[in-house]
Amino acid sequence: MKEICSADSSTFKHVRFVLTDMDETLTYKGRLAAETYMALERLQNAGVNMIPVTVAPAGWSDQMAWMWPVDGVIGENGGVFFRRQNDGHGIESFFCHATEKYPDVAGRLMQIGEQIKREIPAAHFADDQPFRMTSIAFVKPPEAHQCSLIR
């Protein structure tokens, strides 16, 4: 198998979309290599719509959609889709629920999170990113027996 970055642009003339995992597929140890970025740019220049799919929170997904050579990002395990507008100067957001229901969904997620914290005292909300829109995240417990409680 050849590396995708070594392929000629004409190889992709019939490919319209590529959806790919981001976490440790496009990235390695959490970082996007320059070669990967250039491959994304070449694919986009060849007319291929590039859409990474990630568990990453909305805040990170939004940033990727703005800054990376991609046409959109599906974030929060499918909860939100940030699509670059055709003129390249804006982002449209689409949610797994109606936009007007966002406050209800956010409230319900907080209720679920608080219930989990009551039932599992070792559970703590992740504080790595405050901009989550359709998901909640917890810090991985340091001890194995605590991990087994969460599973």
UniProtKB/TrEMBL annotation:
From which residue to which does the signal peptide run? Answer: none
Judging by the UniProt lineage, the source's domain of life is: Bacteria
- Tell me one GO molecular function of this protein: metal ion binding
* Keywords assigned by UniProt, alphabetized: Hydrolase, Metal-binding
InterPro entries associated with the record: HAD-like_sf (IPR036412), HAD_sf (IPR023214)
Q: What is the protein's given name? A: Hydrolases of the HAD superfamily
Xref: SUPFAM superfamilies:
HAD-like
Question: What is the species of this protein?
Answer: Klebsiella pneumoniae
